[in-house]
Amino acid sequence: MTELSVGKIESAVKGTVSRGERGVVFTGVSIDSRTIAPGELFFAIRGRHMDGHKFIAAAAERGAPGAVVSGDYVPPGGLPENFVLIGVNDTHEALKALARSVRLAWNGKLAAVTGSVGKTTTREFAYQLIKTRFRAYQTPGNYNNLFGLPLALLGLGNDHEVGIFEMGMSAAGEIAEMCRIALPETGILTNVAPVHLEFFTSLEGIAEAKGELVAGLSPDGTLIYNADDSLVRKLAGRFAGKKISFGKSKDADVRADNIEIHGIDATRFRLSCGGATFGAALPFAGEHYVLNALPGVAFALSLGMTADEIIPALERLRQAEMRGRILRFREGFAVIDDSYNSSPRALESMIELLAAVPGFTRRILFAGEMLELGPKAPRLHFECGEFAARRGIDMVIGVAGNASEIVRGAAGCETGKTTARFFETSEEAAKFAVENVRPGDLLLVKGSRGVHMEKVAAFISGQWLVVSG
Fold first, then answer.
1. Displacement of CA 379 from its chain's centroid (Å)
2. pLDDT score of 47
3. Which of 147, 162, 235, 275 lies in the 20 to 30 Å Cα band around 36?
4. At 465, is the pLDDT very low, low, confident or very high (cuts 50, 70, 90)?
5. Percentage, residues of the chain above pLDDT 70
6. Is the separation of the CB atoms in 194 and 115 below 8 Å?
7. Are the C-beta atoms of 93 and 71 separated by less than 8 Å?
8. How far is Cα 450 from Cα 378, in angstroms, rounded to an integer?
9. In which order are the strands placed within the sheet that holds 109-114?
10. What confidence category does residue 469 fall into, taking pLDDT thresholds of 50, 70 and 90?
11. Which residues make beta-bridge pairs with 445?
12. Which residues of 96-112 are buried (b: 16+ CB within 10 A; e: fewer)?
């Protein structure tokens, strides 16, 4: 982050310094007093369930030199003598205003990624590709909402040439607001799928909300979009600027075909772009990872990178924690840890992978409940269970809530070859896994964050020796 003085912050957030010196310089920004580092400015955010003003003293104890507070805040006794207070009307709006000011002062190129499934992997792959030539920055962790995105933008430094940011949403208008703050020059739209149905009544409603990224681009910007998704193609039709499509479709500008899984550590495919065709490979298994990598290829090409730079970089891509990482164990089995989150389309993609990877004798799915699916949740879970059985998965373990419908769908499938069990908690499922795993097994662990399926992978790792992953 570029260091910011009190005076610059006061101007950006239209605040008033009521305490401390304007010459103080901050080295970062935080909204969490538990993790704030010495030198960082604390924003006291008021939410529905928590008021950050209650933790200003804690932030000061951890070394924060100051805080942005609501104008009506009355500081308690005991704050350090030189502790800075900047009063504003709304601390969250002030955080967004500061982030926008930093973005406006930054001279690099900024891309934003959104979509229903795979946006984090897409963003991570794009970042890994472009950083082979550029000084690049990306959204840290899961900072992809109206609190996280401003914090991510504040991490931009003058030395960064390219920034790639992730935009998530659970309501209409959120991506539009993020675009107002981040001012992306390139938009990457991955797909539209049945997620957040608790908040939207249809796929079309989700598409409109994701399409706010398209509307947020300037006419001289660039839209990178999925040619295989009909709803995304419709959104792309509204954009009058430069467009680059990707996918398996024959008319995609950046296209993958002849996709073949050669083992748990290799997927090979043919990459077509710019009128030429190349042999390419990823160092892990899965067609969906190829589709996650294509928008990164398109972005790299738009920045002037060549196929000679991109092809070798594809072979060095790495997955983020809990997002499809392969854990191999000395005892002769392996775990695909994709426990970060889940949705019906994402789960089906990973089931396809589980079924397709050669070299294993049993394939076992540990599927946690998928949250935020609204009234359609039972049916969507049931269909995923049927899908797993039809793809030949040997054992399906459902964990928590509507995952019982995954079990029911798998057990009731006409194939009759899939064993299915249900557990109420991830701890129970983890114990079952350790007691029943054997050499030659391939396990897939996946579920929504609230179900804590990462405990299954962690418990297995704690009981057996990981030799790679």
1. 26
2. 85
3. 162
4. confident
5. 99
6. no
7. no
8. 17
9. 136-138, 162-166, 109-114, 186-189, 222-226, 242-247, 254-263, 266-273, 276-282
10. low
11. 337, 366
12. bbbbbbbbeebebbbbb
Asked whether the beta carbons of 184 and 202 are under 8 A apart, the reply is no
**pTM of the predicted protein model:** 0.90
CA atoms of 143 and 160, how far apart (whole Å): 18
Which tokens belong to 157? 């430094």
Domains, the chain, with CATH or none: 4-91 (3.40.1390.10), 106-314 (3.40.1190.10), 325-468 (3.90.190.20)
Q: Positive or negative CA dihedral for 198, 204, 209, 211?
A: positive
Q: What string of H, E and C letters represents the secondary structure of the chain? A: CCCEEHHHHHHHHCCEEEECCCCCEECEEECCCCCCCCCEEEECCECCCCEHHHHHHHHHHCCCCEEEEECCCCCCCCCCCCCEEEEECCHHHHHHHHHHHHHHHCCCEEEEEECCCCHHHHHHHHHHHHCCCCCEEECCCCCCCCCHHHHHHCCCCCCCCEEEEECCCCCCCHHHHHHHHHCCCEEEECCCCCCCCCCCCCHHHHHHHHCHHHHCCCCCCEEEEECCCHHHHHHHCCCCCEEEEEECCCCCCEEEEEEEEEECCEEEEEEEECCEEEEEEECCCCHHHHHHHHHHHHHHHHCCCCHHHHHHHHCCCCCCCCCCEEEEECCCCEEEEECCCCCHHHHHHHHHHHHHCCCCCEEEEEEECCCCCHHHHHHHHHHHHHHHHHCCCCEEEEECCCHHHHHHHHHCCCCCCCEEEEECCHHHHHHHHHHHCCCCEEEEEECCHHHCCHHHHHHHHHHCCEEEC
Q: How far from each other are the two terminal CA atoms of the chain, in whole angstroms? A: 32
Q: Please determine, for residue 22, whether its predicted confidence score (pLDDT) is greater than 80.
A: yes
Query: How many residues would you count in the chain?
Result: 469
Rounded to whole angstroms, how far apart are CA atoms 371 and 383?
15
Q: Tens digit of pLDDT for each residue in 317-360? A: 998 887 888 999 999 999 999 999 999 999 999 999 999 999 99
pLDDT digits (tens, 9 = 90+) for 80-126: 989 999 999 999 999 999 999 999 999 999 999 999 989 999 999 99
Residue with tokens 């973005």: 103
- Alpha carbons 264 and 334: distance in angstroms, whole number: 9
Question: Regarding beta strands 395-399 and 419-423, do their DSSP bridges make them parallel or antiparallel, or are they unpaired?
Answer: parallel
Residue with tokens 């479709």: 249
